[in-house]
Amino acid sequence: MDMHFDVIVIGAGPGGYIAAIRAAQLGMKVACVDAWKNKDGKPAPGGTCNNIGCIPSKALLQSSENFEQAKHHFGTHGISTGDLRMDVTTMLERKNQVVKSSNEGILYLFRKNKVQFFNGLASFTRTVDGGFEVSVAADEAVTLVGKQIIVATGSNVRPLPNLPFDERVVLSNDGALDIAAVPDRLAVIGAGVIGLELGSVWRRLGADVTILEGLPSFLPIVDQAIAKEAKKAFDKQGLKIELGAKVREVNATEAGVTIHYTDSQGQTQSLQADKVIVAIGRVPNTEGLNPAAVGLQLDERGAVLVDDECRTSVPGIWAIGDVVRGPMLAHKAEEEGVAVAERIAGQHGHVDFNTIPNVIYTSPEIAWVGRTEQQLKEQGTAYRIGSFPFMANGRARALGDTPGLVKVIADPATDEILGVHVVGPQASELVAEAVIAMAFKASSEDIARICFAHPTLSETFKEASLAVDKRALNF
Ligand code: FAD
Ligand code: NAI
């Protein structure tokens, strides 16, 4: 087999596998190398997102939400369920099946698009005439030569100092997706996206969950009106979140953990739990890549240094996704992958960083695009706000899911939408409308004048837009 390629993509997470497909669509000869294997030793492309991130976490969120609905909410519909039990093994098997089908889907897409896939760890060896040499440590080691390289090696979990993950008692997001039986008491360190999503899963299934967050404010990256509403809902559900908790020491044994911390009042406290999930952020990953062999520069966090268009310090090498600056989100990685493939093909690939949506898949869901009110205040930018509560929306009442609101922020002079923030049912889907609106530079008046189907949750976006001009109709 000829091992010379137009493009070698290193990593088959959402950034890498999408970049490989797009490059192949554009007529290039493409190889994609990925090291991930599943528990059976089979290739498992899809990266963090598919194997231990977006997809398995959403599978468990769905199972646990179904359980919670049956346990606490079916009764209001007149449905009685008798003795309700959760078979965690079946839930985990279903989750594994969802992951496996996505792994297989990506392998199918590689075949369909004629991307040559190699399952092994890729390392730069040297710069060669007209390209770069990459060695792949696989069952049969191979050396590939690429004219252009796209580094999409993603991120790794960040441990607490002196507290290595054993994935039995001290869990990363990986182990947190594989707990064999619902623990009585579960501690989580970090009330960020992973802490809230996975904390919610195990709380819904019956664990007593306490989340310790180092910062004094809850979800500072989220619009604070939305964060406040979400916190109210989590408190009501019994998800305990302690802010301003400085973790001092964690003692872990097979029997459980004791976490010693200082609370927001400066008092020394200790928390005992059967297991702890540590979710304090992730770090860019270049392990095994040997970037020095080709002179690739990293920043102080270990991220590959890139410009706005994902060009690294070495002409011909590009980097995308979690391994570079910017939000660690699958869809951001994908968009960068497409844009880079198009740039290599001489086209004008583009990613609009102002309209990348964010979602936290809790219940209620939290989703937003654009700037928050606190960011606008800090920047000294003038704005107008319109809010609309789900309580005043007919569809939300029919669903029996009324906590939350939609908040639209617009420029007072031009009325262009600057940000849309949602906490409530289907926020992850509703935010797509706001992304489209902002991508087309819509004004709040544009949205206010569009006909939305009734009764739908989407009407909250129209009503919040009307509210910017103080003319909401149903509130
Ligand atoms: P990755 O997905 O990390 O993929 C990198 C791949 O490169 C891996 O397969 C790795 O094995 C491979 N690799 C690394 N080095 C080498 C090498 N030298 N040779 C060969 N292969 C190599 N984001 C969302 O947008 N929505 C969500 O709902 C969401 N949920 C998440 C839930 C959890 C629990 C976690 C942990 C993350 C979640 N994320 C979510 C974040 C998302 O997973 C990442 O942003 C995304 O996976 C980044 O994609 P990537 O392609 O840059 O890297
Ligand atoms: P995060 O950055 O979202 O949250 C980490 C939290 O831990 C922060 O609130 C931080 O203040 C806190 N923290 C840090 N050190 C601490 C300490 N020593 N003690 C107590 N608290 C501490 O990171 P997280 O949740 O680990 O997720 C990693 C990345 O994965 C995120 O950046 C996110 O982009 C991505 N992700 C995205 C999801 C989505 O899009 N729905 C879901 C899950 C993860």
From TrEMBL:
<keyword id="KW-0560">Oxidoreductase</keyword>
<dbReference type="InterPro" id="IPR050151">
    <property type="entry name" value="Class-I_Pyr_Nuc-Dis_Oxidored"/>
</dbReference>
<keyword id="KW-0520">NAD</keyword>
<dbReference type="Pfam" id="PF07992">
    <property type="entry name" value="Pyr_redox_2"/>
</dbReference>
<dbReference type="Pfam" id="PF02852">
    <property type="entry name" value="Pyr_redox_dim"/>
</dbReference>
<keyword id="KW-0274">FAD</keyword>
<protein>
    <recommendedName>
        <fullName>Dihydrolipoyl dehydrogenase</fullName>
        <ecNumber>1.8.1.4</ecNumber>
    </recommendedName>
</protein>
<dbReference type="InterPro" id="IPR001100">
    <property type="entry name" value="Pyr_nuc-diS_OxRdtase"/>
</dbReference>
<dbReference type="InterPro" id="IPR023753">
    <property type="entry name" value="FAD/NAD-binding_dom"/>
</dbReference>
<dbReference type="InterPro" id="IPR004099">
    <property type="entry name" value="Pyr_nucl-diS_OxRdtase_dimer"/>
</dbReference>
<feature type="domain" description="FAD/NAD(P)-binding">
    <location>
        <begin position="5"/>
        <end position="337"/>
    </location>
</feature>
<dbReference type="InterPro" id="IPR036188">
    <property type="entry name" value="FAD/NAD-bd_sf"/>
</dbReference>
<dbReference type="InterPro" id="IPR006258">
    <property type="entry name" value="Lipoamide_DH"/>
</dbReference>
<dbReference type="InterPro" id="IPR016156">
    <property type="entry name" value="FAD/NAD-linked_Rdtase_dimer_sf"/>
</dbReference>
<keyword id="KW-0285">Flavoprotein</keyword>
<dbReference type="GO" id="GO:0004148">
    <property type="term" value="F:dihydrolipoyl dehydrogenase (NADH) activity"/>
</dbReference>
<feature type="domain" description="Pyridine nucleotide-disulphide oxidoreductase dimerisation">
    <location>
        <begin position="356"/>
        <end position="464"/>
    </location>
</feature>
<keyword id="KW-0676">Redox-active center</keyword>
<keyword id="KW-0963">Cytoplasm</keyword>
<comment type="similarity">
    <text>Belongs to the class-I pyridine nucleotide-disulfide oxidoreductase family.</text>
</comment>
